[in-house]
Specification:
disordered N terminus, Immunoglobulin-like, five-stranded mixed beta sheet, mainly beta, globular, single chain, 644 residues, Methylamine Dehydrogenase, Chain H
Length: 644
């Protein structure tokens, strides 16, 4: 910051753009990152606008702070990045409420330790988790009637190509599906309405884009034949979490968007050249936003017009350009956009998808009615689906909406948010050079990636709050060594000017997030005992069962005691402990840990969990409650006695 402020002849925006361009020029990228030209589009507007709009975290704008005892107005559902988790924040306060273990192991909850969580995660033959790492990127939730219905949220694992579902009544992961035939699984989005049966006005499918080209099958053949590599778009059933079908495309896919009528899904694409090395991925001047005609794809699957890959039984249809030249039969449509776009987002008026340029200072507005017209053979040129392509600033990535016709796009290289009006942008693109589409600019700290606004991608976008995920925090927080936190910034967008009201450090590295009105989500505070087949209904049912060298301990917890004071096993036994929390009081969770045996997990009120381990160390092992529950919490113990 000190160095930035010492540059007297350059505005902050000009300095950031110039210094970044100089750095990129060394690797040959400057041509793709053309700056907004003087006298060009309005994106070259007064660079001081951002500084003028910036307000201190106090004294202006809505107050984000909640008094003790006050609840937040929104849930923020955040990805956890390479922690493999999902996070729940209260907004506008920014208070972190919960970390949901998904693709990671968690010592507190026992995720990855209990038998129930292992069954969801998937295991190797020896019972250990199949994977030990995850990389969550994008979080999206289920819809009904064009808005969130509070049932589910989904998050992806980019590393191991997995899709996880989180139940929003308990904020816990209940299913994980590994996608076949793909790598670099990145963007996801649920459909908002059934594409075939319009009477089904809720989420039925989740669409998944993949980035990396791989051979099909990826079993060692075609290793040195990149021209045979490919990427697949995947459809997963929202209820069963089974893979329905896949569609082969040209290029890599980044993010995913879906239309409100359910008919279209799309992914912005880079590397339509199908290159292997980065310089090959930027040779073309334009890439694409590929659209998927869902009803046609599913009809093709019904008609048997598909192949399978390797051992996978999933139907794979051909969505490549060459196979879809005739619009009337095409499964896909490739709308050209500037090279290497990053992000595609659906406007809440249901009319447009917006692709951000990344290596171009532009955003492309694509009209969905015209895309459908192209599929019907009523539009002679796919380029006519483009309603606007306007300059915004350097490094546009992601876009949010306020429900008042305005879009908010992150400018990674400018370290700014730009507020722009979609209708005015369309007018400008249509030739009205008096149309002023850029409404406001706001400096953020630093290099913003994802952004989202309250209820942004629903028909109920309310234009109250905007969150901005900044990839670098540098001098914003107390130094903690080489690894810095990231910086989530909160912006009041209720008025004409964006007002920055709060900063929050976050553990690296979150990506995308959504902001949901709190009344959309109805949680359960106590489990139903009948939901658990292994549950102990009464402490009197506590017992030790032996079948050969397999021993099962049926145990209950009620503050401040476990139902068995001790239980004996023999060295070499395979021991399964099934624990039911029989307390019915909200917020009365118990834990269960066994020293030296890698056992630690919690059970919430009326919940049952189990663990299995081999008793290979003779001796006394005190099993104790790890979660504070009662004044006699420290006395809440049982003895595991392992006999020789």
């Amino acid at each position: 910051m000190a160095k930035e402020e010492s540059v007297s002849d350059l505005s902050r925006r000009q300095f950031l753009g110039t210094s970044t361009m100089l750095g990129l020029a060394g690797i040959g990228l400057s041509a793709g990152l053309s700056a907004c030209k003087d006298g060009g589009a309005q994106a070259a507007a007064d660079s001081s606008a951002g500084a003028a709009a910036t307000a201190p975290a106090h004294g202006a704008g809505h107050n984000p702070h909640k008094l003790p005892g006050q609840l937040d107005d929104y849930y923020g559902l955040w990805s956890g990045g390479h922690s493999g988790e999902m996070r729940v924040l209260g907004l506008p306060s920014g208070r972190e409420i919960k970390r949901i273990p998904v693709f990671n192991m968690d010592c507190m909850s026992g995720w990855g330790i209990t038998n129930e969580s292992k069954a969801i995660l998937g295991t190797k033959p020896d019972g250990t988790p199949k994977y030990m790492v995850g990389d969550t990127h994008h979080v999206h939730a289920s819809y009904a009637k064009g808005t969130y219905d509070g049932r589910y949220a989904w998050v992806n694992d980019k590393i191991n190509s997995r899709l996880a579902r989180i139940r929003l009544d308990t904020f816990e992961c209940d299913k994980i599906t590994e996608l076949p035939n793909v790598q670099g699984f990145h963007g996801i989005f649920p459909d908002k309405r059934d594409p075939v049966d319009q009477n089904v006005d809720h989420t039925t499918r989740v669409f998944c884009g993949s980035e990396f080209h791989i051979p099909h099958p990826n079993d060692g053949r075609d290793l040195e034949s990149p021209e045979k590599y490919g990427a697949l778009f995947t459809c997963v059933d929202a209820e069963t979490m089974e893979v329905r079908w896949q569609c082969k495309v040209d290029g890599n896919m980044d993010l995913v968007a879906t239309s409100y009528d359910g008919k279209l899904a799309a992914s912005n694409q880079y590397n339509t050249e199908n290159g292997i090395h980065y310089e090959d991925m930027m040779s073309a001047e334009r890439d694409a936003c590929v659209f998927f005609n869902i009803a046609r794809i599913e009809q093709a699957v019904k008609d048997g017009k598909f192949k399978t890959v390797g051992d996978s039984k999933v139907p794979v249809v051909d969505g490549t350009k060459a196979a879809n030249a005739d619009p009337k039969t095409a499964l896909t449509a490739y709308v050209p956009v500037p090279k290497n776009p990053h992000g595609v987002n659906a406007s809440p008026d249901a009319k447009y998808f917006i692709c951000a340029g990344k290596l171009s200072p532009t955003a492309t507005v694509i009209e969905l009615e015209k895309v459908l017209a192209w599929f019907d053979g009523k539009l002679d040129d796919i380029k006519k689906t483009i309603a606007a392509e306007v300059e915004l600033g350097l490094g546009p990535l992601h876009t949010a909406f306020d429900g008042r016709g305005n879009a908010y796009t992150t400018l990674f290289l400018d370290s700014q948010m730009v507020k722009w009006n979609v209708a005015e942008a369309i007018k400008f693109y249509g030739g009205d050079k008096n149309a002023k589409y850029v409404v406001d600019r706001l400096d953020v700290q630093f290099q913003p990636g994802h952004t989202n606004a309250s209820m942004s991608e629903t028909r109920e976008a309310d234009g109250q709050w905007l969150a901005v995920g900044c990839k670098f925090s540098k001098d914003r927080f107390l130094p903690v060594g080489p690894l810095h936190p990231e910086n989530e910034q909160l912006v009041d967008i209720s008025g004409d000017k964006m007002i920055h009201v709060a900063d929050h450090p976050v553990y690296p590295e979150p990506h995308d997030f959504i902001i949901v009105k709190r009344d959309k989500i109805k949680t359960r505070q106590v489990y139903n005992l009948d939901d658990f087949p292994l549950a102990l209904k009464d402490p009197k049912e506590s017992r030790v069962e032996r079948h050969g060298n397999k021993v099962t301990i049926h145990l209950a917890s009620q503050a401040p005691a476990f139902s068995l004071r001790e239980f004996k096993v023999k060295k070499g036994d395979e021991v399964t402990v099934i624990l039911t929390n029989l307390d019915k009081v909200e917020d009365l969770t118990h834990g269960f840990a066994i020293p030296k045996y890698n056992v630690n997990f919690i059970v919430n009120p009326q919940e049952t969990k189990s663990v299995t381990f081999k008793a290979d160390k003779p001796g006394i092992y005190w099993c104790y409650c790890t979660h504070f529950c009662h004044a006699l919490h420290l006395e809440m113990r049982s003895r595991l006695i392992v006999e020789r």
